[in-house]
Amino acid sequence: MTQLHKMSITxxxxxxxxxxxxYPGFAINQGVRIASAVGHIMKQGEPYRLMENRIVxxxxxxxxxxxxxxxxxxxxNESLYVGQNSIVEILDYTPDTVVDIMGFTLAxxxxxxxxxxxxxxxxxxxxxxxxxxxxxxxxxxxxxNRSIHHLLMSLHSxxxxxxxTHSNEHAHPKGRKEQFFHSFIxxxxxxxxxxxxxxxxxxxxxxxxxxxxxxxxxxxxTAGDWINRAVILQAKLLLRNKELxxxxxxxxxxxxxxxxxxxxxxxxxxxxxxxYRITKDTK
Length: 283
Known about the structure:
By secondary structure, this protein is α+β, with helices and mostly antiparallel strands. It folds into 2 domains: about 5-170, Jelly Rolls (Sandwich), CATH 2.60.120; about 175-280, Orthogonal Bundle (Arc Repressor Mutant, subunit A), CATH 1.10.10. Helices cover about 45% and strands about 20% of the residues. The chain contains 10 helices and 11 strands. The strands form 2 sheets. Strands 2-3-10-5-8-11 form a 6-stranded antiparallel sheet. β2 and β3 (about 25-35) form a beta hairpin. The longest helix is centred in the middle third of the chain and has 25 residues, at about 145-170. The two termini are about 25 Å apart.
């Protein structure tokens, strides 16, 4: 299986930061200034597939992220939960942006959230309490792994409960269309090499015409454009693998010809796949 450009919390252990605490399956860092951090682990404008859950708590400023093709803007006292295997890209941030970041893994049978959930300012107080408590426990010696695990389970359960409550409180007549749209986006992020709208419509048990219409109405972007975005996102990840040729990447994405892949990539990104690979190698 081809290894995509992945981001694991184990990579943080090499970063020299007095506020960073890392252990197997867990990492937490407080007061991270994004302007200083970008480039050390994650680069702006590059997609990464996260291997663990992440919670990003914005203390100051504004952070714009793309998570599984959807853009999120997180400001002061807001937090973003991102589930493992999500594809994340830093789009933009204000120079004064400061965040707390936590990465963690949980048991496979633990209840999960569908990829991403934004916690608003109403949740700021209990998120802050959890972060402070977990950070203090993580710094204590000897390290209490069991205590951290229970705190993470409690925090995660609280977020799951809040996400369910939030969804129920904000249900409205357009909810069904939005549900289909988000299911469509989830399929795009979990399945590669499928370009036909009919494939996704069949998986959702709706007609292609209805999927096309509800996607445009919900997002203002056509279903075909969403499919192209997903293809390009996967291509960017695969291009970081030096063992793959451009032609092999096109084949993995189930694109019939190399010239078509190059044209599609240049149309969406502005440069060819080869040029993109070179620019990322030189950064």
